[in-house]
Write a structure and sequence with these properties.
267 residues; Rossmann fold; 2 domains; 5-stranded parallel sheet; 10 helices; 52% helix; 8% strand
Length: 267
């Protein structure tokens, strides 16, 4: 009887110690998960239009009011790398922005694709050359987004997954620029505004589909910007603006009220 009691007790103690060992290793496993944050992308992520730019970033115009900075301040990640840059295309992300990604990266955010599709040139055409030229340029951008952009996005998303395999990736879209039938009495035609908004919808659809195919979350900013487009009573987007590169970009209010909530929801 004594032998059996000792055997049972030993087995129980061994099992208990085993459970204690599992419990003690659980925090260590949790600590091994990536907790750093890397913010990639174009001017909508760098914060062009929001002001207060980091001089060290040069022409990338990384704003203290950009949603990546605001998310970092709210969540205090273990590390923060802000490589988003004004004017960036998918090739710029691949060539210049992915360096900080690693197994320690827990969160990645990115907005990309607008420049590949010719967003800047489209808006210049719409503002300076009239309705017919605008509608033609918008259709050109939509054709590019439909036929060419998906493969370019796949290259970027594949690279992110390879370099940061455990990261939660949030892909942010683009807002409607205009409130239709709004307060604007000057500027481009209503038909042009409608076409530009439609192009944003197509771009967001393509980005969302490719993000989902890679297991990424999509942050749709159109709902948060509703009522705050150009031609609304409280716009969070610059219209034609000085300096000119800040035109048609979110203001500080657009970053905090439009992009940050979408990032939080998708994250």
């Amino acid at each position: 009887m004594k032998h059996r009691w000792m055997t049972t007790t030993t087995a129980t103690a061994t099992a208990f110690l085993g459970l204690m060992g599992l419990a003690s290793t659980a925090p260590a496993a949790a600590q091994e998960a990536g907790t750093g944050y890397v913010a990639l992308g174009d001017s909508y992520s760098s914060g062009v239009g929001a002001g207060d730019y980091d001089d060290a970033g040069g022409d990338c115009k990384r704003s203290a009011h950009a949603y990546p900075q605001l998310w970092k301040d709210a969540h205090a990640p273990s590390s923060f790398d802000f490589t988003a840059c004004s004017g960036a295309k998918t090739t710029d992300v691949l060539n210049n922005q992915l360096g900080p990604l690693s197994s320690d990266t827990g969160t990645v955010s990115i907005s990309i694709g607008g420049n590949d599709a010719g967003f800047g040139d489209t808006m210049v055409t719409c503002v300076t050359q009239g309705k017919d030229a605008c509608l033609s340029k918008v259709q050109e951008a939509r054709d590019y987004a439909d036929k060419t952009l998906p493969g370019q996005l796949d290259q970027v998303y594949n690279a992110i997954s390879q370099k940061a395999p455990s990261a939660h990736v949030v892909v942010l879209g683009y807002p409607h620029l205009y409130q239709l039938d709004g307060d604007c009495t000057l500027g481009i035609s209503e038909e042009s505004r409608r076409a530009i908004n439609g192009a944003a919808d197509e771009l967001d659809t393509i980005i969302s589909q490719r993000a989902s195919a890679h297991g990424f979350s999509f942050g749709d900013v159109r709902p948060t910007f509703t009522g705050h487009e150009i031609c609304s009573g409280d716009p969070w987007l610059n219209s034609v603006h000085v300096p000119v590169d800040e035109s048609y970009h979110p203001t500080a209010a657009g970053q905090s009220g439009g992009y940050l909530p979408a990032m939080e929801k998708a994250g």
